[in-house]
Each structure stands twice: as structure tokens, then as C-alpha cells.
Amino acid sequence: MARTVFCQKLQKEAEGLGFQLYPGEIGEKIFNNISKEAWAQWQHKQTMLINEKHLNMMDLEHRSFLETQMVGFLFEGKDVEIEGYKPV
């Protein structure tokens, strides 16, 4: 049976992640408070950000920027601003 969590992003009970996908304290917080659905939304935004800003995941500053965006999106109700992108 799937694990459910109260998703802080979607503000509803939803299917939780199968395992911790992100390291450390933030990863634990995501695992306990973010649903699969919200994580998928973040993955979509993250891909767009990496592509648009030409982020290099080997660069610590780029990873730090992405982590800040992720926390804002998942826990603080902030949307990810992607230049030139207009939702349809």
C-alpha cells in the first residue's frame, strides 16, 4: 500500500514519495511533507530552470540556487520565475 502524507505544497493528503530522494535535513522534510504529485511539479520546474539558466549541477553555486528555488516552491508557496516562459 502507498504511503500517504499531508502535502504542504498541495495542502491535501496525497501519496508520498517511496523513499527519500534528496539528501540531508531538507530531503527528510520533503520525504515527510511533500507528495509524489508536488515532487513531479518541482521536477518539471527544475528541468526548465536548469535548461533556461544553463545551470551546471557540478557547480556548488548553481546547486545552492536550485535548492533555494526548490524550498521556496515546495514549502513557501513561491512559484519559479522562468524568463520568457508563459504558461498556456
The helix/strand series, from N terminus to C terminus, equals: EEHHH
Number of helical segments with 4 or more residues: 3
Total number of strands? 2
The strand line-up of the biggest sheet is 1-2
> Poorly predicted ranges (pLDDT <50, ≥5 residues)?
none
Largest sheet: 2 strands, antiparallel
Task: Please give the domain count.
Answer: 1
- Kindly state the percentage of residues in helix: 40-55%
CATH-level-2 architecture: Orthogonal Bundle
Rg estimate, integer Å: 13 Å
Name of the level-1 CATH class: Mainly Alpha
CATH topology: YggX-like
Secondary structural class: mainly alpha
Provide the β-strand percentage band: 5-15%
Briefly, what is this?
The chain is mainly alpha-helical and 88 residues long.
Any overview of this molecule?
The chain has 88 residues and is mainly alpha-helical. It has one domain (4-75): Orthogonal Bundle (YggX-like), CATH 1.10.3880.10. Helix content is 50%, strand content 9%. It has helices spanning 24-33, 36-53, 60-75; strands spanning 4-7, 12-15. Strand 1 and strand 2 (12-15) form a beta hairpin. The model has no long low-confidence stretch (mean pLDDT 93).
